[in-house]
Amino acid sequence: MKIDNSLPLEYRTEENRFRITGFWLFLGAEIVLFATLFLTYLVLWTRTGSGLTAQDVFVLEPVLAETFILLTSSFTCGLAIHAMRQGLKKPMMVFMGITLLLGASFLGIEIYEFFTYVHEGLTLQTSAFASSLFVLLGTHGAHVTFGLLWGIAIMIQLKREGLNETTANKSFIFSLYWHFLDVVWIFIFSFVYLKGLM
Description:
The protein is an all-alpha fold. It contains 6 helices and no strands.
């Protein structure tokens, strides 16, 4: 295996470079998935029938908290990758841990929000608006859940094997995924919650 020491740790082998390219292609497919869900929501968000509307159920405060938490987690994820490139395993692990704790906090608020909607009478069966909302938010939440499990697995591997070309590559790819979820949330915040509250 040829190693190019002039490149950052996560790019040093040809296999690692292929993995990163492949993951960008995967993110392209994810963009198509979320674009489809957004378009579905934007077509159906006024189709409430006799059920609750976005203005009836959306509350800005928890959504602002979710946004702040997820943006902060993206920042700490970036700090983890910066520490990785400096060869600083301990700070990297700390920032990865903070990222995952923030992600879990975000997920906790989102789950609470879902329970609130159901308690108020908004369920998948209520209307086309409700079903498209739950599917969009639920898909994003499922991606965050997967990201948390993936991040934990990477931290375990970093603890066992240390910082090398393989663990650096996996950590970098995880960071791309986490930043992608953050970008998707910005669209959700703008085109679902802010649009619904106006």
